Amino acid sequence: MNTILRNSILGIAGLTVAGGLAAGPLNHDTNTPTPVRDAAVTTTQAAGTLDTAALIPHGVQGTQSHIDLNDEQVKNVKAIIAATKKAGMDERAAVVSIATALQESKLENLGHLGDRNDHDSQGLFQQRPSSGWGTVEQITDPEYSTTAFLKGLKQVDGWQDMPLTKAAQTVQVSAYPDHYAQWEQQAADLVAQHWNS
What we know:
The chain is an all-alpha fold. It is 42% helix and 2% strand. It has eight helices and two strands; from the N terminus they run αββααααααα. The protein has helices at residues 3-13, 52-55, 71-86, 91-105, 136-139, 142-154, 164-172, 184-194, and strands at 43-44, 49-50. It has a two-stranded antiparallel sheet with strand order 1-2. The chain is globular. The termini are far apart.
């Protein structure tokens, strides 16, 4: 890819595109403060419950999908929430992360699938070692892969105010950008259920 085109893509999308598939992680300045949402918009601490309007601030887009989760998938939900908290990000970031993982892997920590594999995509977020997301061992670790996704999300200006599918797509650069939206309700329900557990 020539330098001018590459710089244009970096300037517009904030990441490189690898054939319409998940791009590599963004350069991330770890000293950049994480935007903080108004506490009244996120958690009602006194009651110990989450404000569902904050979890889905734009309402759901389109028909919603739902899958029943097994114990391993629930464990991955909890790992995503724990990594989100560790990164200092809010419940909305967890909703975006979980919806993304629902679309990419149905919350299953997938290894290499052989001929059924999408290039070298692996893990909860179907990140690619060849695109700079990390080693196979790293991207199949739920904490690492979530943290990598969140680092990309932090670099998306205004992600908190975007519809979920646009925020997720800006990080993932999927060939199917609108598919993330179908998981927003289930992701919000999972965050509401597990954020304080």
